[in-house]
Amino acid sequence: NAGVTQTPKFQVLKTGQSMTLQCAQDMNHEYMSWYRQDPGMGLRLIHYSVGAGITDQGEVPNGYNVSRSTTEDFPLRLLSAAPSQTSVYFCASSTASGGAETQYFGPGTRLLVL
Amino acid sequence: GDSVTQMEGPVTLSEEAFLTINCTYTATGYPSLFWYVQYPGEGLQLLLKATKADDKGSNKGFEATYRKETTSFHLEKGSVQVSDSAVYFCALSDRGGGFKTIFGAGTRLFVKA
Asked: Residue A54: its pLDDT value, please?
């Protein structure tokens, strides 16, 4: 199993550009989520999905879109990048029952918006 | 809403020293509690967890006990190693919060040889 994979590992964008961060998992997990990690702020939830076709907003959803057409993939789209979106982005997956499930994280995408 | 507060870092210790990283939480329901660890350049990985009051999670010499009366889940290790240098995150998952995981800000640990 590859677990949770993310691409790219690093990206530089100019303000106003768009891009998609890719996330895939091969563990057949129902639950997938996107976090951003900023110094001193821990991880903040951007969007999450409890299954194919179902997505919802997290704590900091503005400026980001998601979709979940398959169980395996959960891409994160930045439609018009802003310097405030400079961060490290992590995708995670887990089973979705009970509330005590371990989340499995990808290696992260480091994004710099100039 | 739910929240997690953990001690600020960085924490710097010598090898074989005793480690405590404090974590307290606020939750409307009855959450599960976690400690995740992030090594340099990597994503987070589960270190240990506890799902009910008085449960003790343990792994790799680390321990944490779910204390409902003090709403705490402090991380301890009796003798740290240089390889324990990492960022440690306390987290909770509350059924009432739709199973979303709430993370603390993280505590960076440096262990000197």
From this structure: 92
Among chain B residues, the shortest Cα distance to A97 is held by B99
Beta-carbon contacts below 8 Å between A and B = 56
What are the backbone dihedrals phi and psi of residue A85, each rounded to the nearest 5 degrees, phi first?
-90, 5
The DSSP annotation for B6-31 comes to: E--S-EEEETT--EEE-EEEE-SS--
Enumerate residue ranges in chain B where pLDDT < 70: 95-99
* pLDDT at residue A97, rounded to an integer: 58
Residues in chain A: 114
The pLDDT assigned to B101 comes to 85
**Nearest by Cα to B112 from B90, B89, B87, B81:** B81
Q: Which two tokens stand for residue B10?
A: 């960085």
Write out the E strands in chain A.
4-7, 10-13, 19-25, 31-37, 43-51, 54-57, 64-66, 76-78, 87-94, 104-105, 109-113
B93 interface with A at CB cutoff 8 Å? yes
Instruction: Tell me which of A32, A36, A102, A104 to substitute to probe the interface with B (most B C-beta atoms closer than 10 Å).
Output: A102
Residue type, A106: G
Measuring CA to CA, which residue among A2, A36, A42 is closest to residue A21?
A36
